[in-house]
Amino acid sequence: MKNKAIALALLLSVVGCSESNKEATEEAKKEAMMEMEKAGDATADGYEEVKEKAADAWDETKDSASSAYEDGKDTASDAYEDGKDMASDAYEDGKDMASDAYEDGKEKGADMMDAGAEKVREACIAMKKKMGGDVSECDSKD
Fold first, then answer.
1. Other Cβ atoms within 10 Å of 133 Cβ, number
2. I want to staple 124 with a disulfide (CB 3.0 to 4.6 A). Which of 6, 48, 133, 138 is the partner?
3. Burial profile 47-81: b = 16 or more Cβ within 10 angstroms, e = fewer
4. Predicted confidence band at 5 (pLDDT cuts at 50, 70, 90)?
């Protein structure tokens, strides 16, 4: 009977251990599932955070690029207007200078023509006096 009692005690302890192992395994599975869920949640949270940061960075990049584009466009427009004004001023200055040069040339040309005409008249008079002609013919405008 002693052996039966020992066998029964051994059987109960094996059954008890087996039940205990089952419970421990189930508990371990539950804990592993909870840890996996926590890890999944952390991963999802991390993904959302990274996605938001990436979206913010993209928005900042777009805003920065748009701002740089607008600044560049304004600078180019200002430079164009300045260049246009400078070209217009240079054209007007050139036109004035050309007009002044034309008038100066015209006056100098007229002065030279008058001086040349006077020289021709003087030569005519000298020739008429030497050859005995009518000096009044030297004053004709023909």
1. 13
2. 138
3. eeeeeeeeeeeeeeeeeeeeeeeeeeeeeeeeeee
4. low
What integer is the mean pLDDT of 68-84? 87
As a whole number of angstroms, the distance between CA 128 and CA 31 comes to 141
DSSP SS3 for 1: coil
Tokens of residue 87, six digits: 């070209």
- Give the up-direction half-sphere exposure of residue 88: CA atoms within 13 A in the CB hemisphere: 6
DSSP 71-136: HHHHHHHHHHHHHHHHHHHHHHHHHHHHHHHHHHHHHHHHHHHHHHHHHHHHHHHHHHHHHT--GG
- CA–CA dist 110, 10 (Å, integer): 145
Q: What angle do CA 40, 46, 48 make, to 5 degrees?
A: 105
Tokens of 1: 């009977």
Token pair listed for 122: 């003087």
